[in-house]
């Protein structure tokens, strides 16, 4: 009997996808480097198939991140309803699933100047506050 995947498998898959996209790598290229088909990479990223620890170490090396990148902030065990993160806080997977989010991440990560990146964050925060204010008026 095949074990089903969990929300943690989906979260790790989302982080693989996020990092792969942010460095401009295709599923085909990642699959090639791992000796897999792009369909297998796709199943990993969607959380349909579990990623073994050994494979995740290989993925981390290829994507240029520490293995902890895939686990930071993941809660173990099942959360009770009402104890999850606030629904009003945008979730990275939601942002990464939109064309605008992907474009924003790609473009933002290409900016080398910390000063410019900080200015962009301040601008986005200001626009979000303005949007919130307009919606509550």
Question: Could you tell me the number of beta strands?
Answer: 0
Outline the low-pLDDT stretches: 79-90
How does the helix and strand content classify structurally?
Answer: mainly alpha
Give the ordered list of helices and strands.
HHHHHHH
* Mean pLDDT level: 83
Largest sheet: number of strands, sense, barrel closure: none
Query: What is the multimeric organization of the chains shown?
Result: single chain
Radius of gyration: 17 Å
Per DSSP, what share of the residues sits in E-state strands of 2 or more residues? under 5%
- Percent of residues in helices comes to 55-70%
Span from first to last CA?
55 Å
**Can you tell me the overall shape?**
globular
Total number of helices: 7
């Amino acid at each position: 009997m095949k074990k089903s995947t969990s929300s943690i498998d989906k979260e790790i898959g989302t982080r693989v996808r996020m990092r792969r996209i942010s460095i401009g790598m295709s599923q085909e290229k990642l699959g090639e480097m791992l000796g897999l088909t792009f369909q297998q990479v796709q199943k990993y990223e969607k959380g349909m198939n579990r990623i073994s620890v050994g494979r995740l170490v290989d993925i981390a090396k290829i994507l240029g991140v520490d293995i902890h990148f895939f686990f930071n902030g993941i809660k173990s065990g099942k959360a009770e309803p009402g104890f999850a993160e606030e629904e009003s806080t945008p979730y990275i997977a939601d942002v990464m699933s939109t064309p605008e989010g992907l474009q924003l991440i790609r473009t933002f990560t290409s900016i080398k100047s910390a000063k410019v990146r900080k200015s962009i964050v301040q601008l986005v925060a200001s626009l979000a506050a303005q949007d919130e204010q307009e919606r509550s008026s």
